[in-house]
Amino acid sequence: MTRKDIDLLHPIHPWHQPYIRLTDDLPVLEVLASHQELFEANDRQLLEKMNHLTYAPGKWTVRDILQHLSDTERILSYRALRIARNDQTPLPGFDEDTFSKFTNASYRSINSLLDELDLVVQGTAALFESFDMTMLRRTGTCSGVRISAFALGYIIAGHALHHRQILRERYFPLLSSGSF
Predict the structure, then answer these.
(1) Domain, as residue range, for 66
(2) CATH number at residue 65
(3) For labeling, which of 90, 135, 164, 177 is most exposed (least CB within 10 Å)?
(4) From CA 142, how far away is CA 76, in angstroms rounded?
């Protein structure tokens, strides 16, 4: 099964569709494996140069985004685990803005945040490798929305791709424009 098969399991909430569309139409394990190489060496160098720069007032810094990626991937992986294990307890949402206010990301180095993200991504890949098709097809409720563990794998990868795209389109150009 690949991304195009997600709706066969359960209709996807419109909020998740943009993330899923960013992923390749490959089996979920291949999508998560490619997700392990989210930032190329050049991207990592640019991230390091960003420091506390934002593209607009009130937007997150690169450090905030990297912490958000780790936090969100952990939460979505936990949801996938609960669903794969057939836990039908409705799972609550989380407020990403509240989370971002209570991290120490601004005091951490870009390299430490990237190292943490790499470990989280590896853990997610290992978790999904442990799921069989029955587990992946199971559905549960997260934030009031019915979803499968299978779809969560694509959402995890797509969420990271979404933020990588924002970094490349809105943050990295600041380095060449002299806006800092």
Answers:
(1) 3-177
(2) 1.20.120.450
(3) 177
(4) 9
